[in-house]
Amino acid sequence: MATIEQLGYSAFFIALTCFIAIVARKLNERMSKDGLVKDLFFEAIAAAELCGCCFELIVVADNFGVATYAVFLFALTIWWGRSWGSATACPYTYMEQIVEGEVSMKEAALKIWAQLMGGCAIFRYVQLYWWLELAETHEGRAFEDCKADLQVNLYLGAFIEGFATLCCRLASKVISEKDAKFGAMIDSFIGTSLVVAAFNYSGGYFNPVLATALKWGCAGNSALEHIIVYWIGSCVGAVLSVPLFKTATFRELFLTEKPKAD
């Protein structure tokens, strides 16, 4: 049976990963000139931090339950929002910017490539910690075969990932425009709640880089199925959020100030 001590090893690893990312960001800030290359390193660092922590969150969910996993994810989402700066560690933010005309295809492709490199490369660091088997929850983890999280029909899985991503992006845009008090906490709560809701269906990744780093090649999904669910599903949902956010109906429902009753 998993113990609090074993949970402590997971918490330590997550904290260590965040600390290493802080140091890496500071080094990049000092050593790189302002420009695209510097931004690429920031994206790679953010993706590595995200995926490194989420590898360990799988251990937390498997041994301590989804509720404990949700608490960790909620806190981490707030932390990442405050520490990443302009980096997103998520491809569809740049796809949205392409639609908005804010970034070129070339720049977006390079940043997505940097995210993938950072997210996928971090597994060796995770594997080393698991190989030490400091906690019983890590026994056999380092070299075990992984299993895909998709538990529903392929197209239903893509719909779940896409619809939840759409909801997440719309919520973030509304919170950002309203400049809501405790906006980061509200945004994190909404995102975490959607992840938990989708957890037993598609895995609740809502981020193609995260899904690829953690689950690419795992038993249960072909490469094409993975792309349809976690890339096409999420990216379509995110891109749809751009025109939907601008519609008069949506803005009237969520952004127009309602007159107060006398």
Provide a descriptive summary of the structure in words:
Helix content is 73%, strand content 0%. Helix 2 (36-64) runs antiparallel to helix 3 and helix 2 (36-64) packs across helix 5. The protein is globular and about 55 Å long. It is mainly alpha-helical and 262 residues long.
Question: Can you give keywords for this protein?
Answer:
262 residues, mainly alpha, 11 helices, 0% strand, globular
Strand content: under 5%
The biggest beta sheet is recorded as: none
The rounded distance between the terminal residues' Cα atoms is 59 Å
Q: What's the count of strands?
A: 0
Number of helices: 11
| Succession of helices and strands | HHHHHHHHHHH
- Give the overall silhouette: globular
Please give a quick description of this structure:
The protein is an all-alpha fold. The protein is built from 11 helices and no strands.
List the helices and strands and how they pair.
Layout (H helix, E strand, L loop, with lengths): L3 H28 L4 H29 L1 H18 L7 H10 L4 H17 L1 H10 L21 H25 L4 H16 L9 H8 L7 H24 L1 H7 L8
Helix pairs in contact: 1-2, 2-3, 2-5, 2-9, 3-8, 4-5, 4-10, 5-9, 7-8, 7-10, 9-10
